[in-house]
Amino acid sequence: MGVEEKSRASGDSPRDAVLPTVNPEAQKAQPPKSAIHPAFYVSIWIAMSSSVILFNKWILSAKGFDFPVVLTTYHLAFSTIMTQILARYTTLLDGRKTVKMTGKVYLRAIVPIGFFFSLSLICGNLTYLYLSVSFIQMLKATTPVAVLLSGWALGVSQINMRVFLNVSVIVVGVVIASYGELEFVWLGVILQIAGVAFEALRLTMVQRLLSSAEFKMDPLVSLYYFAPICALMNGVVALFWEVPRLTMADVDRVGLFYFFLNGLCAFGLNVSVVFLIGKTSSLVLTLCGVLKDVLLVVASMVIYGSQVTLTQFFGYSIALGGMVYYKLGAETIKSYAGEAGRQWADFGNRRPVLRRISIILLSVFIVFSLLGGFAPNYAAGIDPTEYLNEAKSKIGMSA
């Protein structure tokens, strides 16, 4: 065959038979995107976390149920039962099948972690008897500092003085906030600091345990292993400390329905954490935690009438700023701030009226907070009735 015939033959070959660059079957096999926006999971987690704290405060303080260890034991027993049910009838706890848990590992790792977990819960609930929710949240801002120190003590992380100076800003802010607290109770502060220290030790031990790939656990699987031993430990403490003086009148004062609802909220919080991390990231959880703390302070001011002074507000702002800087870093904060500014400008272009309404509502909220929650109570011991009666008598009205 000549060269001319070869070229003619090659020219006659069909050029439409080109291999596809994308496999249509692979495109069909891709899972559909979730129809639920991540903001939904964020809102649920903030609502559940805030509800548990405010609910516990209401039971222990407003309802006079001064049995924090019994309440903690109940929460853990409730979580134990619920995790066992979920493990049998759902797939939420299938992650436990990848954990190589043995009796030796359980005794050497899970039991010590459960011990510190129990102590942190007991101290945390005891604190509600002495301090306001707003001040407790301010003291909890020291948790990153405690985690850093415990990590150095247990050899999990290397000592870094630059990082230590960064987190020292958090301590300075909390000290300022404590100085401005109107109802400062030393016992409550000591209990809260102890609770933060125990929680820091627990988190550090969990970090050391999870450093091995064979022990990767989400919060719900962790609760599956920790809840039974913690319930047992707390139950022993409650049996000798609080149960002898506990009566049915104390239980009836709260109500069985509210106890059930409280346990359900505490367990729902752990479930919401799993979904939040799964649908977003641990970074989003950190940022949402800061937002949740601020909302809790405001909720405490509105619901319980907690007084927050300007000194506390200033100190807490420093602590929150230091905590965000420590967890995110300067570059990440700059990128998020820039993105937030662009989103806000775009929102103003698309919804100018709604943006103005948002600014007005925020301004009203700030003014309300300054005039209401931050205003000191100068006349705490004055009864205005006698002054009103005296004014009425002077103008000829009957008292």
TrEMBL record:
Residue ranges of the Sugar phosphate transporter domain?
A: 39-326
- What's its membrane topology? Multi-pass membrane protein
Q: In which family does this protein belong, per the annotation?
A: Belongs to the TPT transporter family. SLC35D subfamily.
Report the superkingdom from the record: Eukaryota
Q: What is the lineage of its organism?
A: Eukaryota, Fungi, Dikarya, Ascomycota, Pezizomycotina
Q: Where this protein primarily resides, as one coarse class? A: endoplasmic reticulum
- Bilayer-crossing residues are 39-60, 72-93, 105-129, 135-156, 163-179, 185-203, 223-243, 255-277, 284-304, 310-328, 359-379
Instruction: Cite a single Pfam family from the UniProt record.
Output: TPT
Task: Write out the GO cellular component annotations.
Answer: endoplasmic reticulum membrane
Name it.
Triose-phosphate transporter family-domain-containing protein
Question: Which UniProt keywords are present, listed alphabetically?
Answer: Membrane, Transmembrane, Transmembrane helix
* Subunit annotation: Homooligomer.
Which InterPro entries does the annotation name? Sugar_P_trans_dom (IPR004853), TPT_transporter (IPR050186)
